[in-house]
Amino acid sequence: MTGRHRLFRVAWWICNFLLAATIISTVYCAVWEFTVRKYLDGFSDAVVPDFIPDIDKVRYILRWMGNGPVRTVSPDPSVLSDRDPQTTLNYKQLLAICGSATNAFLNLARSSDLVTRRLLLLGDDNRVKHVVAEVLIDHRWVVVDPAFRVMLTDEAGHPLTRKELQDPSLFWQATHNIPHYLPEYNYNNLAHVRLTRIPLVGLAMKRLLDRMRPGWDEKIDWTLLLERKSFFFLFVSFCACVMFFLLRLVLAWYADRRLRVPRFRLRSHLHRAGAALLFSPEIK
To answer: In which domain, by residue range, is 22 found?
Structure first.
């Protein structure tokens, strides 16, 4: 056997092993995501009544976040996962932080059939100052601040969009009665995804995407991917599974057309095993 054939067999078995591992991982993550969704469905049924207007659903969720039952207090909040809805919904410390409070709101709102997404308020240095949510109500993306348990409205009580909140007078109307609401939490610099967190290449990626496709971060719904750990791992596992499956097809083509070496053919082995199991052998 030549060195090239030996190298191929090593690559072939490694690819098969990784493909099997990613298939198992995808199945596991799919079950994990299913259990999280069932949990959130039950949670939202207990918090939000059915068949009420969307704006009332938002108010019910915010009321539960502000005046809900006694919640667990962790002796070490740093060990809590701020991307696991089963954790963010039940720990007092996480419901007091803007990022994890928004995570809890988004997951509960989605389970109540609301269309939502997160919104990052950035400073001049592009660092996150605050995290809020947007909810699609009457074809308008209105702003909800889960950390302060409020929907931002003008003096007449009309919900405001982020564009409207860029008006200083409307921003003042919406926030001046909220205790400890900082003026720095303005809507002058916004993002849905902060690529600059990616080391080395994040800033360059953002500039490239902004130049090639302005508004790219609004074209895709990033909420589940960024706010729910189970969905993130399901997405990564599925992508890895597809990648190794395609790599296996390439290696199979290379073995059949270039190297012309025999390889383990799963389908033919399964076919023969099924035939041996289901059909009686012919007696000649």
So the answer is: 1-47+228-279
Q: Are 165 and 236 found together in one domain?
A: no
Within this chain, do residues 97 and 177 fall inside the same structural domain, yes or no?
yes
Report the chain's C-alpha Rg in angstroms: 26
Same structural domain for residues 147 and 127? yes
236: buried, middle or exposed (CB in 10 Å: 19+, 13-18, 0-12)? middle
Task: Name residue 278's amino acid.
Answer: L
Q: How open is the CA angle 124-77-73, to the nearest 5 degrees?
A: 125
Please indicate, yes or no, whether residues 5 and 68 belong to a single structural domain of this protein.
no
Q: What is the mean pLDDT of each run of 10 residues along the chain (284 residues)?
A: 74 91 97 94 90 94 89 85 86 90 93 93 87 94 96 94 95 94 92 70 72 76 84 94 94 80 58 60 55
One-letter amino acid of 177 = N
Q: Are 101 and 147 spatial neighbours (Cβ–Cβ below 8 Å)? A: yes
Please compute, for residue 184, the number of CA atoms within 13 A of its CA located in the half-sphere on the CB side.
11
Number of domains in the chain: 2
